[in-house]
């Protein structure tokens, strides 16, 4: 299979040792670091804020891929950009003017992503693909790690792949939720470029991270 980029979700890391965990996945060969920001309002869970991202920044030079599950979202773009985010991804439902929001992300010096929940159609992207760098397809409902992959999202990945290729857009497709070595293959075959994986990266503890990441990437196949 094509080789996807692997972006481990630190939601499944040991929060008491978060800096060491970020360093460990970096050294284990991940491509990006995925940071799930949840506000207890847009999604039913609360995680971390910009101060934590700032504190983690020295632990890896790799792309900090920050997924904001926050509403309203606009006021949080600048703080996360200042904290060291490289990519900021938002949900179209999380603000009144998503087009303005992605412009604000780029104006803050970051790459911009749009995330689609399982019930949000690919069509939502029609007038946005020119403005963004990444589409994040949620293959679980956002809020928690450890959920099962929703297979209907494979059709959405394929539809987005076709929209991107037909339009000649320079946009990556990332998939997040229930990604395992098995579902990873399905996602890549459907057209995914980047895979987010929490449980499947962190299972077994630090001695297993390199092997887990290699299995997600399909190394050796
Ligand atoms: O954003 C989310 C959940 O909202 C994800 O990033 C999960 O953290 C992925 O966890 P696994 O399904 O890989 O355990």
Write the layout of secondary structure elements.
Layout lengths: L4 E4 L9 H10 L4 E7 L11 H7 L6 E7 L7 H7 L3 E4 L7 H10 L3 E6 L17 E5 L14 H15 L4 E5 L4 H10 L3 E4 L1 H4 L6 H9 L4
Parallel strand pairs: 1-8, 2-3, 3-4, 4-5, 5-6, 6-7, 7-8
Helix pairs in contact: 2-3, 6-8
The structure holds 5-O-phosphono-D-xylulose (5SP).
The site of 5-O-phosphono-D-xylulose (5SP) has 21 residues, from strand 8 and helix 7.
InterPro entries: Aldolase_TIM, Ribul_P_3_epim, Ribul_P_3_epim-like, RibuloseP-bd_barrel
EC number: 5.1.3.1
GO molecular function: D-ribulose-phosphate 3-epimerase activity; metal ion binding
Brief write-up:
Catalyzes the reversible epimerization of D-ribulose 5-phosphate to D-xylulose 5-phosphate. The protein is of the alpha/beta class and about 220 residues long. It contains eight helices and eight strands.
What number of structural domains do the residues give? Answer: 1
Q: How is the largest sheet built, in terms of strand order?
A: 1-8-7-6-5-4-3-2
Order of helices and strands: EHEHEHEHEEHEHEHH
Spans of at least 5 consecutive residues whose pLDDT stays below 50 are: none
What is the level 1 CATH name? Alpha Beta
Distance between the termini: 8 Å
CATH homology superfamily name: Aldolase class I
Provide a descriptive summary of the structure in words:
The protein is an alpha/beta fold and 221 residues long. The chain has one domain: TIM Barrel, CATH 3.20.20. Helix content is 33%, strand content 19%. The chain has 8 helices and 8 strands, in the order E-H-E-H-E-H-E-H-E-E-H-E-H-E-H-H. It has helices at 18-27, 50-56, 77-83, 98-107, 153-167, 181-190, 199-202, 209-217; strands spanning 5-8, 32-38, 63-69, 87-90, 111-116, 134-138, 172-176, 194-197. An 8-stranded parallel sheet has the order 1-8-7-6-5-4-3-2. The longest helix has 15 residues, at 153-167. The chain starts with a strand and ends with a helix. The model has no long low-confidence stretch (mean pLDDT 97). 5-O-phosphono-D-xylulose binds at residues 9, 11-12, 36, 67, 140, 142-147, 176-179, 196-200.
